[in-house]
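Rad1-domain-containing protein
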Amino acid sequence: MSQSQVASDESPQYVLSVFNNDLRHFTNLLRGIGFQKRALFDITEGGMVVTVEESRTLLAFAFIRHDMFDEFIYDADLAAELDPDPQNDDEPILPKRTIFEVNLQMMIDCLNVFGTASASASSASTKKLKYAGWDKPDDERQGEGSGLRGRGGANASRNGRIDQYMGNGTGTALKMTYGGRGQPLVLHLMEDMNGPNAVCELTTYEPEPALDLPFDSEAMVMKMILKSSWLQEALTELHPSCEKMTIIGNPPPPPGRGPTLTAPPRLRLKATGTFGTTEMDYPNDKEVLESCECDTHVSFTYRTSHIARVTRALPHSSKTSVRIDEEGLLSLQLIIPSPKKKGTKTMDAFTEFRCLPIED
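Structure:
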């Protein structure tokens, strides 16, 4: 047997192999939901969904399409061979998926091993909202076991020949591989072809039963789309003592009647805490609310600490969709602009936060 045949036989096979010439966008998506230690990765041929959960009340998702990467290879046949999932004949055949958990916080730290994973808000507006400021009764303003093994160096072993992918970009390149059930998630990082590189292995875990919070669009009673910077400013101004937040939606004026000074705002955020109640009103102004869908009065209350989890992702997003169904389930969908690539049309990524209301 020739040496080339031996090398071919011994070459590793991966269920997942992805490459990105600049890891910042990927890291920002993970960082936006990185408020819990563990995260569940659900991988298919279309990309991956990363999910975290808090207190059986809050779910956060990062939806990452396959075309966000410069290279995305998912071997569904190998995944089925290594982890067979027999189905009943009466059940529909579902697309093959691979699911595992990792220490998300440690993964983010590994991605930033060279200190290059941080980036400013992609294209989110930093413009100040002219309506900004919480209305307060006193008219006063009141103003966060890893399973990690790492190696590094100029010629770190098992780097998967990441140098063959290197382009002329200024960011840190990432090649990420996963060999299948029980295997580690391996991160290969390189700043440039002649610079240092690092290899980090993250232990993967069997997924635990996940919280299921399906949002029923047919039962939706409110949907508002606004610039993320407006929501970010409101949340960052909240006093730490505020424990509850009520989201209030109001219908438009009756046909033939325009809005009046005494008309309620289309969207109101009301925070309640030790020192009283504060409110933020969003008028029906295209500069503030891009769209408003609310045919009746809607009011549901949530834990402020849960709503505040969205502030990690807001700086990198451009727009936020605020949706509530008839049971009070809140869905905050944030559009995260993707870097533009020459010759390709890349769709924006997005994150979503779903939160149960406080029962009266």
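The CA atoms of residues 250 and 297 lie 5 Å apart.
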